[in-house]
Every structure is written in C-alpha cells, then in structure tokens.
Backbone:
C-alpha cells in the first residue's frame, strides 16, 4: 500500500541517469514524498529559483538528493552555489556518487553535503537516509552549513574524549553513512567487532545514536585526523 503521510515533504532529485531517476522517483513517491527531478545542477538551480517565488513556495524542496557527476554543472558546483545563497543554504543535501574512496566521501561531507551515498545502493537505504536527515534537520533551529554555526546547539560531549586509531576509522565511515556490515567489509573484520566499536564510542561520548555520533565526528573534525 502506498504511504501518504510524510508530512507532504518535497524532494528535489538531481541525476543525469534517466533510469535512476525513474526508479528512485517512483520509490520515493510510493513512500509518500513529492518529488521534482532535474538532469543537472543548472536545471536544479532554475527549479530552486522558481520555488523561491512566494507564489510557488510549495515547490521549495525540504531535501535535495544530488548526483555528484553530471554535465553542465556537477554536484560540487551545485552545492557550492546553494550553500552561498541564504534562500537555499539550509536545505539538507544527500550526495549520490560512484566514487567510493574515503577521500571522496570526506570531501563531499566537508563541502557541505549531509550524507554521502555510494552507487549502487538499495532504494530502502536511500529512504532511511532521507528520513534520518529530515528528522535531524527538524531538530535544529537552523541547519549549520558551516560546522560551527552559532545558531546550532552543539552536542554535549566531554572535551577529553580520546578515540583509538581503529575507532577513528570506524567513526569516519559511520559519518559517511555506511552501515555496520559495510564498515566491517571495508575494514576486514566482523560486524560484531564494528558494533562493539560503535557501542564503545557512544559510551565514551555519552551520545545516544549513530546520527549524533556522525554529527559529533564532523563538528569535532574527527574526519580530518585520519
């Protein structure tokens, strides 16, 4: 049965692959979201400009899902544009990319993306990231596109928290949106080992979940220490 109660959230999906657009759009709409699509960053900017018009405010997206590699204007250039525009800078962004190297993911997150997902991915995984990011954005009075924005209440974590080298690797991958099983495969250890590391880090920091752990890792520049 089609879900309809996603608070009528509007998503902007940007990708130059028509097959991916069709698949993801259908899946997101089935899950109850309204979805507008664009083939590249330039077309997406035009959509945002129209949505900024008061008469078309309903078209302003609550979240943007953006491919990284596109003609005319790629994901990095598009993200830079919207993060510099106060009308759009608070919109959460999920990057979709075939580039799965750690440095690619770190660059995407530092550039201003909220989530970095590597293609191919399961539609259900994307929906989970969308829902998590929308909830996170809803808890903040104003989303921080720069990590230390004074408008965002920082997480309360003791300043003397020290992570082991392995924990630093794990938290980096958690912040990139990888599941425990994916992290385990990358580090060539068991999933139970990763779960133990995540549990230890939550205990050390006093945080409650992986979302807060990811936020803390980015805010405290843990992604830059590896």
Residues:
């Amino acid at each position: 049965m089609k879900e309809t109660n996603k608070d009528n959230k509007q998503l902007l999906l940007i990708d130059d692959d028509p097959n991916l657009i069709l698949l993801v759009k259908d899946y997101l709409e089935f899950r109850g979201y309204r979805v507008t699509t664009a083939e590249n960053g330039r077309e997406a900017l035009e959509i945002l400009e129209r949505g900024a018009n008061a008469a078309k405010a309903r078209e302003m997206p609550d979240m943007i899902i953006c491919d990284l590699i596109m003609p005319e204007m790629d994901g990095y250039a598009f993200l830079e544009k919207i993060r510099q525009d106060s009308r759009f800078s608070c919109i959460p962004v999920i990057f979709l990319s075939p580039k799965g190297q750690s440095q690619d993911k770190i660059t995407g997150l530092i550039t201003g993306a909220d989530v970095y997902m590597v293609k191919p991915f399961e539609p259900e995984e994307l929906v989970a990231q969308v829902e998590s990011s929308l909830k996170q954005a809803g808890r903040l009075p104003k989303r921080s596109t720069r990590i230390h924005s004074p408008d965002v209440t920082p997480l309360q974590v003791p300043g003397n928290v020290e992570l082991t080298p392995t924990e630093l690797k794990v938290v980096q991958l958690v912040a990139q949106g990888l599941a425990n099983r994916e992290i385990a495969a990358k580090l060539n250890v068991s999933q139970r080992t990763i779960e133990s590391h995540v549990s230890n880090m939550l205990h050390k920091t006093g945080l409650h979940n992986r979302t807060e752990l990811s936020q803390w890792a980015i805010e405290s520049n843990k992604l830059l220490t590896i």
About this structure: The chain has a mean pLDDT of 81. Residues 26 and 150 are 38 Å apart (CA to CA). The chain is about 45% helix and 10% strand.
